[in-house]
Backbone:
């Protein structure tokens, strides 16, 4: 007997099913629920379990109806989706519940469904070449970074040069001029001591000349400058420099004055066996270099994999245009904002008190969320088409990897994922990773079996 009264398309990849639960099924479930409540019901004048059924239905009306709906709606929704042959992507939204005595139960379940995806070309991707070779100069630079961290900054009596650490006083002359020109009434000095006035005042800072985090204009200005000397420089902002100025990114110029106070030169420790032994468990410099070279090669390998996967997924999405379910995208955006809020909380920031435009953030996150949903649906379709299977051995290795990452045991991690309803999601993500490796021409079984997967990292 059909339970689906109607099946309507109410949007791209969105269906509304009107479902009917036959009256005999409603009455049978009602009888079971009332009988269960009657066993523990206690009312004045009646012994426990002896309250008349009619009185139970009257006095516990809301509890009875709620329990009946909790039992019947999920059961008949599952029967309806099988009958309609749809693949829901999220739990249904239940509305228009019609539940009256001596009548069948009806309700409308609206749900996002998997779109029809026609697989096209899954070969001939334009991918960057894998690069893992490490040059000796890269090893030298990495070791020098460690030497710099362990070096000593000594004062010197000479002009500043790139690589020096300098102490200086910097004044934003543009802000000072704007503050001087502002109209202020007498007696208002304290109130007008605003952010502009503070920005105009001199600030004492210490920088490393030529460092990537330092304005290049500032580095150029202090290069060749001796302690006690002053100079000025102009910084241009806007017109696509990526910094923005709050004025539609029009170009603006700000003038600064800088006075150099002191110059320090870095003295790095000598690169010898003593240094290598002090850095870690290395017998000599050769052992240190070998380890650094191996680490750099591994980092290059991971970055190369990331770049190739990114190029593959981008081209895969471009070749397969299809409508993406809006409700699933909304769910993804919500998940992204929740993750951001949790990261704020971990850094000691209360998300509720942070002055953030959450709606604007949601709008900005939506294109990324839509892209992620599109790729997941596409990879799931390919996995189904190619009958990709994750064996129990591969799955258990991933669980074990998760346990190591969390410093826990495999059974505990599995139980935690099961309670959170994430086991199926983890298995699905492992299938997607296997598909990506297939498309890259790699061995999906070997790679997934090693347990070091993005799925494990995400679940951690």
Residues:
């Amino acid at each position: 007997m059909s339970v689906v009264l109607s099946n309507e398309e109410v949007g791209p990849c969105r269906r509304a099913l009107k479902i009917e639960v036959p009256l005999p099924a409603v009455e049978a479930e009602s009888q079971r629920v009332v009988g269960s409540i009657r066993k523990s019901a206690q009312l004045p004048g009646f012994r426990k379990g002896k309250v008349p059924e009619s009185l139970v239905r009257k006095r516990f009306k809301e509890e009875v109806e709620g329990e009946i709906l909790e039992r019947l709606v999920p059961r008949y929704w599952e029967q309806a989706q099988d009958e309609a042959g749809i693949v829901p992507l999220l739990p249904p939204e239940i509305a228009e519940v019609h539940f009256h005595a001596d009548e069948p139960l009806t309700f409308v379940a609206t749900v996002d469904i998997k779109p029809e995806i026609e697989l096209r070309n899954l070969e001939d991707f334009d991918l960057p070449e894998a690069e893992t070779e490490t040059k000796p100069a890269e090893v030298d630079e990495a070791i020098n970074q460690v030497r710099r961290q362990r070096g000593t900054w000594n004062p010197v009596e000479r002009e500043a040069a790139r690589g020096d650490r300098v102490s200086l006083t910097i004044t934003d002359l543009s802000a000072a001029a704007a503050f001087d020109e502002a109209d202020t009434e007498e007696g208002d000095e304290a109130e007008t001591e605003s952010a502009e006035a503070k920005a105009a005042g001199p600030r004492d800072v210490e920088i490393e000349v030529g460092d990537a985090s330092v304005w290049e204009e500032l580095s150029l200005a202090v290069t060749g400058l001796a302690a006690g000397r002053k100079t000025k420089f102009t910084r241009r902002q806007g017109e696509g420099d990526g910094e923005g100025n709050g004025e539609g990114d029009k170009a603006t110029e700000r003038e600064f004055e800088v006075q150099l106070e002191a110059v320090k030169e870095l003295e790095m420790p000598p690169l010898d066996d003593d240094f290598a032994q002090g850095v870690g468990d290395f017998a000599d410099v050769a052992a240190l270099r070998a380890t650094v070279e191996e680490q750099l090669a591994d980092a290059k390998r991971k970055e190369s994999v990331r770049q190739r996967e990114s190029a593959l997924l981008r081209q895969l999405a471009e070749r397969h245009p299809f409508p993406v379910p809006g409700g699933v995208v909304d769910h993804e955006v919500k998940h992204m904002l929740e993750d951001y809020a949790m990261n704020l909380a971990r850094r000691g920031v209360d998300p509720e008190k942070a002055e953030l435009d959450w709606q604007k953030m949601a709008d900005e996150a939506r294109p990324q969320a839509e892209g992620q949903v599109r790729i997941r649906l596409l990879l799931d379709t390919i996995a189904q088409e190619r009958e990709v299977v994750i064996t129990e051995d591969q799955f258990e290795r991933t669980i074990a990897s998760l346990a190591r990452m969390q410093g826990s045991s495999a059974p505990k991690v599995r139980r935690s994922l099961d309670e959170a309803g994430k086991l199926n999601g983890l298995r699905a993500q492992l299938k997607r990773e296997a598909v990506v490796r297939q498309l890259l021409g790699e061995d999906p079984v070997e790679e997934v079996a090693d347990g070091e997967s993005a799925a494990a990292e995400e679940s951690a």
Remarks:
- Residues 285-319 form the longest helix (35 residues).
